[in-house]
Amino acid sequence: MKKVLKQHIRYSEGQWFAVPLKIGGYALGIIVRGSYKTKGGLGYFFGPRYFEVPNEQETWRKQPSDAILIGWFGDLGIIQGRWPLILSTRPFRREEWPVPKFKRIDSLNPEKGWLVEYSQEISGIGLPVREIYCDARDLEGLPDDGLYGAEAIENVLTKLLSTE
Fold first, then answer.
1. pLDDT tens figures, 83-117
2. CA 116, CA 146: separation in Å to the nearest integer?
C-alpha cells in the first residue's frame, strides 16, 4: 500500500482566506492571532457573499470595523483545503486588528453574563486574563466568547449572509 504524504498548509497572522457558505459562495476571513502552530486563533470575518473566492483587492478594502463576525476558531477548514488561502501584499499590523472584549451569557440566569477579556499579546487560542460577572445588558454588541469549529463558522456566516 502506497503512503500518501500530505502537504502541511502553513499560515500565520495576517493570512486571508475564503470560507465556503452552505448556500454557495464565500465569505472572507483573516486570522489576526494564531498560526498553523496554534491550530487556529482569532479571526475577523466579512461579507458580502462572494460568488467566487475573493481576490487580493478585496483584502485591501476591509477594515476591522467592517467585520460581521469576530471569533476564536479551529483551523480544520484551512488544513483540509476547504478554506482557500488568499495571497495578499497588504501589510499586517497587529495593533490595527485588536482582540475585542467578548461576552458569555449565564445559561442559568440569562439576565447576567461575563465580560471576557484576553491579552492583546495572545498568540493563538488561549485563556482569558479577566472575566467579570455583570448585567447582560452591559454586554450587548460584544462578540460571543467560545471556540467555533470550522463547520460552525460556515453555518454562522451562511446565516448572516443568506439575506444578501
1. 999 999 999 999 999 999 999 999 999 999 999 99
2. 10
